[in-house]
Specification:
Main location: cytoplasm
Strand content: 5-15%
Shape: flat
Keywords: Aminoacyl-tRNA synthetase, ATP-binding, Cytoplasm, Ligase, Nucleotide-binding, Protein biosynthesis
Radius of gyration: 29 Å
Catalytic activity: tRNA(Arg) + L-arginine + ATP = L-arginyl-tRNA(Arg) + AMP + diphosphate
EC number: 6.1.1.19
Strand order of the largest sheet: 7-6-5-11-12
CATH class of one domain: Mainly Alpha
Subcellular location: Cytoplasm
Oligomer: single chain
Number of strands: 15
Largest sheet: 5 strands, parallel
CATH topology of one domain: Isoleucyl-tRNA Synthetase, Domain 1
Number of helices: 22
Length: about 550
């Protein structure tokens, strides 16, 4: 980020002298071919019209001005139709160690968000059963995204939407009541549609112990309500416990029933009618989502009087914006992809720009493998691997890192055996070991009487080999990675970066025997460099909610 900002500042000053504003489509990025320098920009091609000269001519003039303006530039070259390729001096990259040392655990903290209020709603699983591994991936993505956004200067609030007012909760109550009757030895017929997991039997057993068999003599509706409320509380308490142990916290737990109690759903219907966006047809209430690009209008209230999920979702998002959020982020399972257009229509109907006010992140399925075989899962059938079981088996660190090892909308194979291996083939171990390896090196240095000291530009000038510079450049890219992850709502970019950094560190360690360099000053300089690497690894892992152990 320091390199990009430095180059942009120089270019903006050069353009301003010509009365030219920064062109909108200008890019500054690292070229794919490292022989083309550290950064390349198309600014001359973007500004050619305003400058009233050919792009290569403008690029040539800018080249001379850049070299004259900054001693940190070792070379500036004009390439192709007018690209400008810039190479920085070793001294520029060496100062990265000073930046990291000076900022410590705040290195990579930015203010690009400038306090913009963002709400991240994630997990939001129905309290009808324990969280499974799919929920775990959504939890890791949501929590890490919130951490990244906060690090980038956004004001973030996380939320769990409790679906406590729908049909699934009634089915949960009926399922528990059925099991209560079964446990009491009653003659019962198995319902066609109910939750079959062992946890339902356990809830029924606990409730019968508390209430006694008198529960079964109550009217059906009352008995079902008692079972539903008990099951909801117990399951929700379990969900909160599982998330805590997975290092995931929510600032707000928002029950769907609150929308009805506050009249928010009715108010939303009134608002839509007033805007001529809701109408009655065939005994149902419809929302004119086709006005906003949806392929068909959607039902809000069915002809029988039951509300659709969409009805409360509109009211819920209206409530979010009324609470003052600039952007709301919804993290959903990939099976909800068809729901995105209607939600964008909903946001547009609320008077917001869905392209800037709403961000929907889809999380693909997790294929859980054990012993080389896939584990089949179904919440309703009670066949699934719970998040708690996975965390107990492999640990929160391994689970979180694996969930973030790929883009959220990509399928993920999670091999329970592989993530427990202490080998370089295990990406979790690979990154954490980079931190532990540096800490071990410092312990060995102390044993040999090598004392680290505060880095200075003079000391760091020793870091001039290609391996030194590659590591320095990668450290300098960390703030850029945080910024990119925040702007694109993609926390997996931090995971990708950390694997690159860990790989560079492990290769560096192999090529450069730090404590056996034969040059005392070089040894101390490289210790300072590796200390910076450990700091960045630790900071990056923290954004993923993963620990950075000193020993492994």
């Amino acid at each position: 980020m320091r390199a990009t900002e430095h180059l942009r500042g120089l270019l903006e000053e050069a353009l301003q002298k010509r009365g030219i504003a920064w062109p909108a489509k200008t890019t500054i990025e690292a070229p794919r071919d490292k022989s083309h320098g550290d950064l390349a920009t198309n600014v001359a091609m973007m500004a050619t019209k305003a400058a009233k000269m050919p792009p290569r001519q403008l690029a040539g003039e800018l080249r001379e001005e850049l070299l004259a303006a900054s001693p940190d530039l070792a070379d500036v070259a004009v390439a192709g139709p007018g690209f400008i390729n810039v190479t920085f001096t070793p001294g520029f990259w060496q100062r990265t160690v000073l930046d990291v040392a000076g900022s410590g655990d705040r290195y990579g903290r930015l203010n690009i968000g400038e306090g913009t209020r963002i709400q991240v709603e994630f997990v939001s699983a129905n309290p009808t059963g324990p969280l499974h591994i799919g929920h775990g991936r959504g939890a890791a993505v949501g929590d890490s995204l919130a951490r990244v956004l906060r690090a980038a200067g956004f004001a973030v609030e996380t939320e769990y939407y409790i679906n406590d007012a729908g049909r699934q909760m009634r089915i949960l109550g009926q399922s528990i009541l059925y099991r209560c009757r079964e446990l009491a030895g009653k003659d019962v017929t198995e319902p066609e549609d109910y939750y079959r997991g062992d946890y339902v039997k356990e809830l029924a057993r606990e409730l019968l112990d508390r209430e006694g068999e008198g529960l079964l003599d109550l009217p059906e509706d009352k008995a079902t309500d008692i079972c539903r409320l008990y099951g909801e509380k117990e399951i929700l308490d379990g969900i909160k416990k599982d998330l805590r142990e997975f290092r995931v916290g929510h600032d707000v737990w928002f029950p769907e029933s609150k929308l009805f109690a506050a009249g928010a759903v009715a108010r939303t219907f009134d608002d839509l009618r007033a805007k001529n966006l809701a109408y009655d047809k065939d005994g149902a209430l419809w929302f004119a989502t086709t006005n906003f690009g949806d392929d068909k209008d959607r039902v809000l209230v069915k002809s029988g009087g039951d509300l659709t999920y969409f009805a409360s979702d509109i009211a819920y998002h209206d409530d979010k914006f009324r609470r003052g959020f600039d952007v709301v982020v919804d993290i959903w399972g990939a099976d909800h992809h068809g729901y995105v257009p209607r939600m964008k229509a909903c946001v547009a109907a609320l008077g917001r720009d869905p392209e800037t006010s709403l961000k929907v992140i889809l999380v693909q399925l997790v294929n859980l493998l054990k012993g080389g075989e896939q584990i089949a899962m179904s919440t309703r059938a009670g066949k699934f691997e719970t998040l708690a079981d996975v965390v107990a088996e492999v640990g929160a660190d391994a689970a979180r890192f694996m969930f973030l090892s790929r883009k959220s909308d990509s399928h993920l194979d999670f091999d329970l055996d592989a993530v427990k291996e202490k080998s370089m083939d295990n990406p979790v171990y690979y990154v954490q070991y980079a931190h532990a390896r540096v800490k071990s090196l410092f312990a060995k240095a102390a044993e040999r009487g090598v004392t680290p000291r505060e880095a200075t530009p003079e000391l760091l000038s020793k870091l001039d080999t290609p391996e030194d510079l590659e590591l320095l450049k990668l450290l300098e890219q960390y703030p850029d990675t945080v910024a990119s992850a925040a702007r694109t709502f993609a926390p997996h970019l931090v995971s990708f970066y950390l694997r690159d950094l860990a790989g560079q560190l492990h290769r560096y360690y192999t090529v450069n025997p730090v404590l056996a360099s034969g040059d005392a000053e070089l040894t101390v300089a490289r210790l300072a460099l590796l200390d910076a690497v450990a700091t960045v690894v630790r900071n990056g892992l923290d954004l993923l909610g993963v620990s950075a152990p000193d020993k492994m």
